[in-house]
Amino acid sequence: MSLLGLHLENRSATKVLLHSINHYFLVIRSDKLGVRVSINGHLSNFNSIHSYFNPYFFRSMDDKVQKAQRYWKENLTYLGILLSIWFLVSYGAGILFADALNQFRLGGFKLGFWFAQQGSIYIFVVLIFVYVYLMNKLDKKYGYDQE
Amino acid sequence: MDVKIWTYIIVGLSFALYIGIAIWSRAGSTKEFYVAGGGVSPLANGMATAADWMSAASFISMAGIISFMGYDGAVYLMGWTGGYVLLALLLAPYLRKFGKFTVPDFIGDRYYSKSARSVAVVCALLVSFTYVAGQMRGVGVVFSRFLEVDINTGVVIGMIIVLFYAVLGGMKGITYTQVAQYCVLIFAFMVPAIFISIQMTGNPIPQFGMGGTLADGSGTYLMDKLDGLSTELGFAEYTRGTKSVIDVFAITLALMVGTAGLPHVIVRFFTVKRVKDARMSAGLALLFIAILYTAAPAVSVFARTNLIETVRDRPYTEVPQWFSNWEKTGLLVFDDKNGDGRIQYVADKAQNELTIDNDIMVLANPEIANLPNWVIALVAAGGLAAALSTAAGLLLVISSSVSHDLIKKMIKPDISEKSELIAARLSAVVAVCVAGYFGINPPGFVAAVVALAFGLAAASFFPAIILGIFYKRMNKEGAVAGMVVGIALMLYYMVKYKMGWLDATLPTKDEWWFGISPEGFGSVAMLVNFVVAIAVNSFTPAPPEDVQQIVEDIRLPMGAGEAVAH
Fold first, then answer.
1. What are the tens digits of pLDDT across the range B190-229?
2. Would you tell me which residues 138-197 of chain B have a C-beta closer than 8 angstroms to some C-beta of chain A?
3. Closest partner CB to B77 (pick from A38, A79, A121)
């Protein structure tokens, strides 16, 4: 099909960067799934040429972009918290403060030694599963979960 | 039945299983060959990743090394597990969303340049080849020890087995054999560990037994006893270690970041269906790895205590049977320096009369614990499973680097699917032969190059991938400059301070920069890579908009199945 002076082949996948507005990139792609528009990677159905000229179309795409930015920000917050714990148990308790912690005991273990050879590994495993749980919930909240 | 017959039976059965799986799951397309068709379940991928990751060194040598290093062994324990947190949180989900076949694919597309792709291909090949040479040697060593064949014969048998299922099955065949190999190796590691734990502390869980009291009813904690024995013989207290804090910090960081940057680990996360499966399988992989990695330090403590108790000041004529068995292999060497007929095992090198190989701590465990012969055979099968699974994973990275990144993406873009698959299989054959050659004729600096593999991965891939995902403005000039400077610095440091090729004699510890050993220098080279990349990026143009769009795109989990057309 021909659109806005651009020729899009339906048979092979084509991506055309149309233009950028503020930090938004508008891309039209045409492949076997049809012709679609995406803004900053968010796909929108673009079956009719009218939607491109429709002001509501941009408003709804703008919502999508903002939603994606909120999602990314929440993800970064989780990363910050979990990686701080990751650093504190291994480099903190297991290495930098190991000597100080060795005054305390956990059964037969000196505490600093336990963090270095046992505890930090357990906590690494827990951290990943906490992240899996949080992100699955976040994906659902924003409608990004895949079936 | 004697050990040898048991070993033939158990090792033979496990090999039949691997080959059976390979025939059942052979690859029919390049997608199946490179990423197992992208439909592996998180559980299977978790097990496969764990087997891929745990090499003969993890299985056989690590517990022994830790038992001699004491606290300092934590660099390996934390370094080789903590990297999975980085993988799960910072890399795996986004690379899965990106949805291609190899790490150079990501670097090449994200940094829109052939030079970036070439640098990545060279790094991937360098890292994987250095690593795989050690694995093939490991296969040969395990064969020679348990089946009493020549090491070179062992390497050749290993080559044929790996060749069979890597060439036939590609990633798909490797994945499902690795699942079986994980089961074999974890069972083989845990059975002796559990029995020794019961014997020494009465606790069936080695991780708890390590912190428990001795089974002799004295109420003394095992760790306290070992600390006491160590200082008595002039060694450092087991729980303290001898490395400087900054070096322990640097080595741990280099190993963690290197783990997260190793291509054969990263590529495993391309094989699952969805972004959330990538996260989940990273968690499961670490869980499966952690079972061995938390039991290994316990085995170290049991074995060390046991060994000191057995040999300390004992007349040579009264040593137990296992001692003489392992003496024959040369792993235990007694040299009666003062001629009193007793074994003096002390820290002072001039007086010490006993030389112990690292590997004996795991290999001799079943005999020390008086376990039946089939357990010894099981340990042999476990060691082989660990070595073969890692070798296969690495060979696949090498073959896809050649057939996909070099031939398809750089030399002959119009190659047909069918020819690419043939090219992939042929490069796997060549890679196996080259790895086998290095296994039979190991370069003298193998140990040094394995440490180099982690340093190189840390200094090259990790910063480029992290910046590619988390810093949209990152451009090709910055990324390429960072990778080149990072690798060059790492190579220079290794050549100067590990190989000693630049000076008449190897420089001493006092000359190390910031007191950081070559093993830990990867973390410095990684930081330099980040700084150079960001600096160069700040005065060069921003990446094109469609590249910035790729970055926006990989941050969202939706639509991971929909790979961008090649």
1. 999 999 999 889 899 999 989 888 888 888 898 888 998 8
2. none
3. A121
